[in-house]
Amino acid sequence: MFCSITSTAISGVDALPVCVEADVSEGMPVFNIIGSLSQRTKEAADRVKTAMRNLGIVLPPKRITINLSPGDVKKDGTRYDLPIAAAVLSALGRIPEDRLKDTMIMGELHLDGRIEGVPGILPSILLANKLGISTALVPAENAAEAEAAGIVKVTALSCLKDLIDYCTSGIVPEQPPLRKVNAQEQPALKEDFSDIRGQAVVKRACLIAAAGFHNLLLSGPPGSGKSMAARRLPGILPEMTAEEKLEVSRIYSVAGLLTSEQPVITERPFRAPHHLLSPQALVGGGRTPVPGEITLAHRGVLFLDELPEMPGRNLEFLRQPLEDRFIRISRIGRSVVFPCDFLLAAAMNPCPCGYYPDLNRCTWTERDIHNYNSRISQPILDRIDLRVDVPALEYRSLQSEGKDEISTAVLRAKVSAAFEIQKDRYRDLAFSFNSGLPANEIKKHCMLTDEAARLLEAAYHSLSLSARGYHRVLRIARTIADLEGAETINEAHISEAVFFRQHAGKA
Ligand SMILES: [Zn+2]
User: What is the average pLDDT across 269-290?
Assistant: First the structure.
C-alpha cells in the first residue's frame, strides 16, 4: 500500500512544498524515513511509532518506508511527525486515502499523541492558497495564525486521535475560539512622545529620522531619555500597509513567535537586543537559518543601546545589512535571504562613565574618550545620517508636570505627510525614502535655492566634509524640506541638516 501527503519545508520566510510518501510492503520489519533529513526530523520515527502505540495502534511486522521529497530540499524540525503518521495510517488502510487528498498537514507529535505547534504555518498556508489546496490540518496552537492567512479551510487538531476521527468519520474536533483580528484597527499606543518633557531637539531628530527613514545615533548621559525617545519611534511611523503586515508576520511565523493571542503582527516592530548578543542572534543563522534581530525589526525600529560596547565583530556583521536592507545567510549547499529594512536607532554615552562634557564628574581623559568613540567604525557611522547630542534633563523639565504638547499623534501626522511626498517622488524607483537616495540620484531630487547652495558650499569647506558627509547633509535637508512640504531645499533646511551633522561631531 502506498500513500502520499502534502506538507511544507521552510526556507527563509518562504514555504516549499514537500511530499510525504509512505509505503508498506512485505519484508524485514523496519520503519525507515529518508529524504535529506536533519537529526531532529529523523527522530520522527520514534515519536510517531510511540504515539501510535499509545493510541493502541499496533504496527504490523512489515517494511514501512517513508520518503520526504524533493530530495534537494533539506527537511528540518518536527513538523513532519503528523503528516508521517497520516501517511503511514493511510498506507496501512487505517484511514481512507481520499480523505487526505487536496490537504496540507503539519504538526509535531508528543509521545502520548498530543499535537504541538510548529513554526512557519503562515507561509505554509499562503503556499497552500497558491497551490489551490482546499484544506489544511494544523496544530490547534497554530489555528489563529493559519486562519489569518485566509482562503484555505483550516481544521485545528489537538491530538493524533483527532486526525483519525476526522479522516475516518469526518468528525471535526472542537475548534479553538478565534480572536477577530481587525486589520483596520489603529494599534493602541501605550507610550507617547508627550510623556517626554522638553528635549525638543531630540524629538525633532526623531521626527526627521522617522520621516525619511534615516538611521539615528543619540549620544547622551545615562537617564537623559535616549531609550525613552527610541522606544516611541515606531509609534510615529505611519501604520504598515496590509502587505507590510503580512511580510512582517511571515518573519515572526518562521521565527515561531506568533501566538494565538497575536496571530499576525499589526504594529511596527521595536527590537532592543542586548549589546552582547551573539552574531547569530543579531543577524540570523543556524543550521536551518532562522531570522535574527535585524530581520525581526524589519519595517520597524532596531534599537542598539551602548553602541560602543557592542563587540566589533557584531558591528561588522551589521554593515552589509544596513546597506542592502536584506541579509543572505549561506549554509553548505544553500542560502536563504531574510529582509531587514529597519530604522537603526543607536544610543551611546558620550564617554565610558557617561558624564562628559561635565568635567566635574567625568573622570576620563580626552584620549580615553576618543578611543571610546572610535570603537564605532567609520563604515557604520557612514550609514547613520542623523547624530544628535541628548543633553541631561534640565531641572525645569523634571519639575514640570503634565504632558508635553509634542505628542505622538502630532509627529505621526507630519511623518505620514512626508511619507506620501516620498512615495510619489520615488515611485517606480528601487528605493522609497530619502535615506535610500543613492549618491548619483541626489542632484536630481535635491534642488537647492541659490542661498542654500552657497551655505552648503561654505559648510563643506568649514567643516571639511567628506563626499559622504556632504551627501548625508543633503539627504537630511531633503527630509526637512519634505516635512514642510517644500519642493526646493532652502537655506534653513541646509542649516538644520548641518546642525544634526555637527552634533556628536567627535564620532
Ligand atoms: Zn566620563
Answer: 92
